[in-house]
Design brief:
By secondary structure, the chain is of the alpha+beta class. It has a single domain, classed as Cytidine Deaminase, domain 2, CATH 3.40.140.10. The chain has 4 helices and 5 strands. It binds tetrahydrodeoxyuridine.
């Protein structure tokens, strides 16, 4: 799928964001290795920290449907610069995305910035840190 198409999908699902508190809707679109598309929007809660970001909604939907191999993800919000994914989302992405996976961050003004997983979260904590396997 083309980057522009993926960003368009993220824009469409952004319209379904549930954001009565922040009024800051975000949309994300994720493509699996076999070309299946999963989208997600942010879903807030009156107990604020329970909120789930758009990126994680898309990833969790895909994982719960049995998909574990991902190709690229786009995220969009009404920001001046292409929206940077939050730290929690980067950590969740790093659990499932190989280092070269592309992440297209974008805004509503036609700007985008593509980074790889390892660029967006360098020196990330991962499964190998839980063991002494590399020693
Ligand atoms: N948000 C996302 O959905 N993704 C991000 O990467 C940044 C933040 C949401 C969480 C909350 O609903 C709103 O944006 C304001 O922080």
């Amino acid at each position: 799928m083309k980057k522009e198409e993926l960003i368009q999908q993220a824009k469409e699902v952004r319209q379904r964001a549930y954001t009565p508190y922040s009024k800051f809707p975000v949309g994300a679109a994720l493509v699996t290795e076999d070309g299946t598309l999963f989208t997600g929007c942010n879903i807030e809660n009156a107990a604020y920290p329970v909120t789930c970001c758009a990126e994680r909604v898309a990833i969790f939907k895909a994982i719960s449907e049995g998909y574990t191999n991902f190709k690229e993800l786009a995220v969009v919000a009404d920001t001046k610069r292409p929206v940077p994914p939050c730290g929690s989302c980067r950590q969740v992405m790093s659990e499932f995305f190989p280092p070269q996976t592309k992440i297209h961050t974008s805004n509503l003004y036609g700007e985008s910035r593509t980074m790889t997983m390892e660029e967006i979260l360098p020196f990330s904590f991962g499964a190998m840190d839980l063991t002494h396997e590399d020693e």
